[in-house]
Q: What sequence folds into this?
């Protein structure tokens, strides 16, 4: 039995890599340690419903703030990922269990208990499943809709790289409010950062979502500080806009352990502000670009503004 608390068992593919020095974080990266009544209550609900959160598994720096407000990004389909991306802290290897058929109901129950106005559902990659978990995503969306019809739903999906293209239709037909799939980095860094994925496949996935449902909001994000340059980041913006992506997130990469990809540099907040300005200039409807930005950070507030802006534009045309 693997002990996922031990780094060498959590990341067996990374165990023999050389250590990468972890540089001291600058002042703009530091956050308070998690705690407080709201944090404890969220933790209790997650444990009672036997749920996994990406907040914990990926060691998100914003977990304390989000959990204290009753927000948590739920991770479905287990806690072991079939990919071994060099940046990611999710446990890797062969998933030890089949899908839990009762998980969608438990997620829906937690959403109701937390009284969430907006929920983000993500997952590990499950290349061992024929549909990559597409139907499980759809069932989770439907379960939340049934228990909490007023809650808006954002999903952050795998790339379904090894599946029949039709599985994407299963997810889109379940009608999430936001379909997010992260490109994670610039194409030139894929071989060392996201070796199991394909940049243009991920880009095409986002484009196909819009083709299947032009009204669905699409979202994607990248990390910076991995060794990319500003020109490559701006090219990714252009590629996303060509795929009609609505919402862009850009955040600082933080190295989980010495065995993970090195932090090449800490990007200054002024550079993030420049990226945000450039992204809006390229036509994104919503942009979040700060050192602590993550896919689900303030996702509910951002989606509310995004939807309000669309409704205002439609009203002005009528």
A:
């Amino acid at each position: 039995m693997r002990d996922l608390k031990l780094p060498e068992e959590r990341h067996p593919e990374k165990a023999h890599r050389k250590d990468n020095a972890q540089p001291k974080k600058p002042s703009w990266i530091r956050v308070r340690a998690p705690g407080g009544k709201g944090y404890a209550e969220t933790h209790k609900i997650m444990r009672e419903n036997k749920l996994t959160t990406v907040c914990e598994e990926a060691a998100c720096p914003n977990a304390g703030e989000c959990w204290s407000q009753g927000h948590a990004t739920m991770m479905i389909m287990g806690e072991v990922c079939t990919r071994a991306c060099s940046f990611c802290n999710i446990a890797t290897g062969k998933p030890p269990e089949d899908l839990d058929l009762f998980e969608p109901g438990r997620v829906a129950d937690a959403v109701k208990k937390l009284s969430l106005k907006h929920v983000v559902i993500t997952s590990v990659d499950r290349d061992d499943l024929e549909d990559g978990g597409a139907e499980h995503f759809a069932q989770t969306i439907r379960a939340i809709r049934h228990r909490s019809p007023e809650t808006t739903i954002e999903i952050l999906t795998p790339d379904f790289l090894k599946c029949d293209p039709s599985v994407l239709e299963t997810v889109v037909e379940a009608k999430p409010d936001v379909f997010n799939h992260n490109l994670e980095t610039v194409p030139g860094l894929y071989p060392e950062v996201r070796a199991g994925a394909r940049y243009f496949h991920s880009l095409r996935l986002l484009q196909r979502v819009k083709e299947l449902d032009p009204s669905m909001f699409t979202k994607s994000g990248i990390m910076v500080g991995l060794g990319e340059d500003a020109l490559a980041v701006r090219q990714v913006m252009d590629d996303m806009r060509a795929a009609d992506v609505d919402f862009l997130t850009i955040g600082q990469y933080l190295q989980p352990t010495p065995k993970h990809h090195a932090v090449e540099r800490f990007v200054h907040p002024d550079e993030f502000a420049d990226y945000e300005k450039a992204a809006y200039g390229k036509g994104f409807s919503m942009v979040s670009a700060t050192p602590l930005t993550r896919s689900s950070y303030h996702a509910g507030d951002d989606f509310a503004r995004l939807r309000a802006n669309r409704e205002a534009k439609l009203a002005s045309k009528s």
In short: Residues 22 and 60 are 16 Å apart (CA to CA). The mean pLDDT is 88. The longest helix spans residues 299-317. The first strand starts at residue 52 and ends at 53.
